[in-house]
Amino acid sequence: MSRPPEISTQQEAHFRAYLNAVLEANRQFNLTAVRDPEAAWIKHILDSLEGLRADESTPNFDGVKSVIDVGTGAGFPGAVLAIALPDARVTLLEATRKKCNFLEAATQAHAPNARVLCARAEDAGHNPELRETFDVAVARAVGSFSEVCELCLPFVKVGGQVLLWRGQYAELEIEESKRALQTLGGKAGVLKAYGLPGHDTKYYLVRVQKTRSTPAQFPRRSGVPKQEPL
After folding, report:
1. Which of 19, 22, 164, 186 has a 20 to 30 Å separation from 11 between CA atoms?
2. What is the CATH number of the domain that holds 167?
3. Which residues pair with 114 in a beta bridge?
4. In a 3-state reduction of DSSP, which class is residue 223?
5. How many other β-carbons are positioned within 10 Å of the β-carbon of residue 210?
6. What is the pLDDT of residues 177-195, one digit of tens each?
7. pLDDT score at 59
8. What Cα–Cα distance (Å) separates residue 182 from each residue in 9, 89, 149, 209, 214?
């Protein structure tokens, strides 16, 4: 199992311990479909760490003080980023109580700069204590492109950004979502393409710049962004 060069041995130890906690909890309830430790290291830890850099020399999180992971699930990428960025405050937003309970225990041990918020993004996005307060929102494997932008952009300050982990059709998704992004106050572009060891698929990290305030009616009520994407 490889370790990216910018990650310390202490951070690697926390990644491994966190991943072990995920795989152990996975025996009781479903956190991840990936059960092999080495495959999970690649698919969850290394993939999450792709968000740290736009390329070999350009960091994505320089000066970032606050991050929210929307629909964090088992804590990917949010908990991984919290370990990698100990000076940032990372909020893990998750709607399922069992997952929230797991995240609270696991992050207390390995990512104390993370906090868990158990709520739906459609509701939390209208909370004045959260709305347009974050430097960066991240989301990995959460819904369609326009849906995830509707859920994430309300949390981000004007001038901030959303980082999205997307699959092989990312460029087409961006093209098809231009109208939705214009409505929501964002502008998207592919940040980088990358591959993972043992995977033939090409993945993409997409950056959505927050260019103006998101209109007050977004996100729409629970379930609507998924059922009726912009």
Report:
1. 164
2. 3.40.50.150
3. 90
4. coil
5. 26
6. 999 999 999 999 998 999 9
7. 80
8. 43, 29, 11, 11, 10
Q: Please report whether residue 143 resides in a domain.
A: yes
Q: Whole-model pTM?
A: 0.95
State the total domains in the chain. Answer: 1
Q: What is the pLDDT of residues 196-215, one digit of tens each?
A: 999 899 999 999 999 999 99
d(CA 144, CA 166): 9
Cβ–Cβ under 8 Å, residues 183 and 230:
yes
Range of 31's domain? 9-227
Q: Which two tokens stand for residue 52?
A: 């740290």
Could you tell me how far CA 196 lies from the centroid of its own chain? 17
158 lies in a domain?
yes
Residue 128 exposed, middle or buried by CB count within 10 Å (0-12, 13-18, 19+) = exposed
Assigned token pair, 23: 């795989």
State how far the Cα of 84 lies from the Cα of 12, in Å rounded to an integer: 9
- Residue with structure tokens 């740290």? 52
Has residue 3 been placed in a domain? no
